[in-house]
């Protein structure tokens, strides 16, 4: 399939980690059950890039809408592409699409926890312990930047968008690199 044969959805997401009760917790948004074929599930705050905005602006806008927090971007963690498992399942008109997402590391700079979206895809936001939603040990192999797999499962059985595990793996790798001595 050539690039003219499908639509591209640009997206931007933020990994925001803070200490809660002595544990690393990640800020996540709960997608509404009506918005996915898998039901309610955790995702990173973020979403589609509007026509008139860049990746950074979209990520910060989405964090504000979905979580109630203002944020500052610290840097780019990575990028990921995604296509739905079933061709044509992502759009009402049946035209296939591919999501291309940039994933940022960010910190909260203000605001109060609570989704500001009205009629959007987010039910609520929460700080969730990383160990409850990230895959076990960070991967030691090269991370795939594309998956057609469905969601993963959190420790309590709630579904988690696969990009969360991918992004947290990137974040953990960055933390390990930051802790290495400078030579």
From TrEMBL:
UniProt-listed InterPro entries: Nudix_hydrolase, NUDIX_hydrolase-like_dom_sf, NUDIX_hydrolase_CS, NUDIX_hydrolase_dom
Protein keywords: Hydrolase
Keyword Transferase: no
Region (Disordered): 135-154
GO MF annotations, alphabetized: hydrolase activity
Domain of life: Bacteria
Family matches, as Gene3D superfamilies: Nucleoside Triphosphate Pyrophosphohydrolase
Record bears the keyword Hydrolase: yes
Location of the Nudix hydrolase domain: 7-156
Alphabetized PANTHER family for the sequence: ADP-RIBOSE PYROPHOSPHATASE, DIHYDRONEOPTERIN TRIPHOSPHATE DIPHOSPHATASE
Family classification: Belongs to the Nudix hydrolase family.
Listed name of the protein: NUDIX domain-containing protein
């Amino acid at each position: 399939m050539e690039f003219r044969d499908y639509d591209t959805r640009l997206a931007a997401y933020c990994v925001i980690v803070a200490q809660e009760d002595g544990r690393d917790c990640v800020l996540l948004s709960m997608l509404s059950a009506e918005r996915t074929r898998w039901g309610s599930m955790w995702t990173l705050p973020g979403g589609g890039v509007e026509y008139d905005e860049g990746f950074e602006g979209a990520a910060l806008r989405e964090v504000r809408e979905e979580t109630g927090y203002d944020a500052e971007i610290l840097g780019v963690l990575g990028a990921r592409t995604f296509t739905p498992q079933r061709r044509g399942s992502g759009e009402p008109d049946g035209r296939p699409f591919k999501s291309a997402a940039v994933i940022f590391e960010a910190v909260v700079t203000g605001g109060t926890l609570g989704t500001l979206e009205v009629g959007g895809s987010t039910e609520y936001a929460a700080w969730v312990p990383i160990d409850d939603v990230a895959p076990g040990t960070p991967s030691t192999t090269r991370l795939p930047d594309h998956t057609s797999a469905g969601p993963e499962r959190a420790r309590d059985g709630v579904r988690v968008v696969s990009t969360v595990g991918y992004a947290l793996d990137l974040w953990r790798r960055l933390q390990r690199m930051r802790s290495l001595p400078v030579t």
